[in-house]
Every structure is written in C-alpha cells, then in structure tokens.
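Protocol step 6 of 9: fold each sequence in the batch and record its structure tokens directly after the sequence line. For illustration, a two-sequence batch is reproduced in full.

Sequence one:
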Amino acid sequence: MKKYFLQFLLIFFLIFTIACNKNNNKFMSEKIIKTEEEWMSQLNDEQYYVTRLRGTERAFSGKYWNHKEYGIYSCICCNQDLFLSDTKFDSGCGWPSYFSPINSNVIIEKKDISHGMIRTEVLCSKCNAHLGHVFPDGPPPTGLRYCINSASILFRSID
C-alpha cells in the first residue's frame, strides 16, 4: 500500500511540475553562471571533473547506479530537479539510467563527437552541467536511455 501511495505522490509531483513549468517558463530560463573558481569551491574533484569538464565516472562506481529508493534526482550544481525514480531502470551499463527527464525543459541535448563516437550529450538547462548522454536503446514508453553520471546528481527521498 505504501508503495502505491509513493508512486501516486511521484506521479502527482510530475504532473504538478509539468503544469507549473508550462505556466512559468521564466524559472526554467534563468541560467546560473559562475566562474570556474566558484564551481571548484562548490564541488568536489570528481563532481567538478564530470559536470564542468565533461568527464565520466567509471562504470559501476557511482553512488546511484544501483540505487532503488523513491524520490527525485537533481543537478548537483544547481539543484534543478531532473529525473523521478519511477523513470529509473537497470540498463546494465553501470550508470544510473532513466527513460525520461521530469520534463523537456530541464535538460539540453547536444551533439557530442568526442572520443571517436557520435553521441548525444545531456546538460542541465539551468547551469549547463554535463550530466551524461542519451541513447535510443531504452525501454518503453520513450525508447530512450538517459545514462547519467552519479557525480552529477543528488537524490532527495519522498516520504
């Protein structure tokens, strides 16, 4: 019963967030701009490497790759809510994977041709933090796999 109640709360929060964002795009468009020194003082070395230098943590090493609690995953740099735990799935890749962000306004997708590959990079729309990449091999309903570095996100439980 508690599980269904938590799922209901997450779905309600998602709908509420989408409705608020449609009526208040000003909030989503406010960019956070900091100097490299400010980012370095706010983040630990791995968080800075991943989010500001577009790095990647080792597979199966991050805090959230096998995390199963109900809640919300937010950007480590600016606290913008990004993913709901209801959209998280085990892709077997070693990084937290989600089939959808909270809404399309919270992320930016950008072509990435680094490391001899063509991929789609995922950035936080509020602070431009590198989060990871999105691939077209995810489960229904979207068919997408947002492969996100644990070092780029924070988890907030919903009780």
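Sequence two, same batch, same settings:
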Amino acid sequence: MVVYQALLMAMIFVPAARSPLVLVPAFLLSFLNAVVIHNHLHRGVFHSHRLNMIWRGVLSFGALYPASANVPSHNLVHHHFGDDGQPDWADPQHVRFRWNLLNLIHFPNIAGPNTFAGVARWAATTRQASFGRQYRTETVVAFGLTGGLLLYDFWPVLCFLVLPQFYGARCILRINLIQHDRTDTTSEWNHSRNFVGRAFNWIMCNNGYHTIHHNRAGLHWSELAEAHRREVAPRIDPSLDEPSMIVYLLRRYVLHFGRPPQRDVAAAERVQPPAKLAPRAARRAEAEQAAAVEQAAAAERATAVEQAEQAEQAMVG
C-alpha cells in the first residue's frame, strides 16, 4: 500500500508521472487496497490497537471511504447473508437486468448506497460509541485529505487520485456479485464462488477462497488454501471452483448475453458427511461479540488517554 500511495502522490506533485505507466498500476493497486481493508478488518495487521486504527485511516484515504464501514456491512451483515430476516446490503438480487453485463456494471450503484445507508443506521443504534468516533475520524481523513488536494490542483487530482480511489471501492463491491450470483446463500457450503488460481491468490492474499473465508472468518488468509482443499472442495458443486477470474468474467458477462438460470448447486454437500462447523447463527453471534469486544477495548483506551491528559493538565496547573 506504500507503493500505491506513492504512485498517487507522484501523479499529483510530479507532472511527468502523469502517464498510463503510472496510472494503470495505481488503478490495480487501488483494488488491492480494498482487499487489504477487507483482510485488516477481519484480523488486524498489527498487535498494537492504536497502529491498527491508524492503518485504517491510511487505507481509508486510499479507497475514499471509511474502512470501519466493513465491520457492520461485511463482517456482521454480508457474512451471514439474510439469516436474520434482513437482506444482505450487497445481495446479487439487487440487480435484475436481462443483459448480464449491465448487472456487473450497475451493481456498485445499488450496493454502495445500500451499504452506507445501512452503516449509518447501525452506527446510530449501536452501543459501541468508539465505532462512531473511529468511523468519523476515517471519514475526515479520507475526504479531508482528498478535498484539500482537490483545492490544491483540481483536475489532476480528480483524474489521478479520485478516479483510482473510486475504481478500487467499486470493484470490491462488484466482487460480491461475482462471488455470490447464482450460488445458494442458504446452504452451508455452496453459497460462494471460489477462484483458485495460484497467481491470482498470491496477489490477492488468498481472497479467491471465499467459501472457507465465510465459514471460518477467523482463519488467517495464509491458511485458506489448505482449508479450502480439505473442507470445501469435497462439498461444493464443481462449477463453484473457477480456475481463473478473468476467464470467468469473459464467459459470464461478455460472451453470454443473459444471466444463467439458478441451479441446485447445494446438492453436492448433501451427499457428504457433515463437517464440524458451528451453526450460522452461532457464527454471527461470535462476529458480533468480537466487534463489541474490539470497540469496548478502544473505548477503554480512549478513556485512559483522556484521564492521563487531564491528570497531566492538573499537575501543570
């Protein structure tokens, strides 16, 4: 992500860097920035809570949205689909064009507003006050820095900063459609499409192994490939293991006009012995508890810092 941010700054402050040779890698790395947000919000990169919060701010600037939005939208809602009776904010069924390519193009325009409206509702009702503070801080960092740079040099910043930021944010929303359309989100194992190419997963930190990530969200990304081979592959329809995302996108959205019919992809898991997997309701409760614990720890640290500052001021006074 340091390289991504460096490319963005180079294109803003060094006119000679404003070329496709720099812009194209920036677009690609912006998507990787969104992937890192996803991984970081599941398992923080650092042992230090403060460093993890700072890193969220850095990633938020790269994506032009507050990274903490992933806690309610992804960890608590998307990972459990419609199990609580409420629709997933990024459900593939939000788009229904007959021409399937239009579904892929338009999906972020539906999922994005749905997601941030849902996050706003969750933030207004949650008891986790520290979430609101962190969310607002990341919003100020992302939009404040970008707004300041737009005032500095509007058109170059719009073309060489804002467009890459938007690209990564919109692409990560499209992944929800790509990985879940025409799967069975009510099943235990056939709810996700996996992309198992080694090169793709090396670049994308094993995010192609999506089924096992949903079922065992606490696993570190480096463990997903082996867990997929051991637990997922025997229980899913072969069509949900794709060797290449590029080939899949061409076949599904370019070479074919219509959306394919829904199939009973979950039949594969019904003939296999059950795995030792906690019920989805229990996994949802565990995710909610983990989010609450993290926010409580953040609140305690903020209170301790405030008390220390007050004590220092009292001593000075």
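Proceed to step 7 once all outputs are recorded. Observation for sequence two: The chain has a mean pLDDT of 89.
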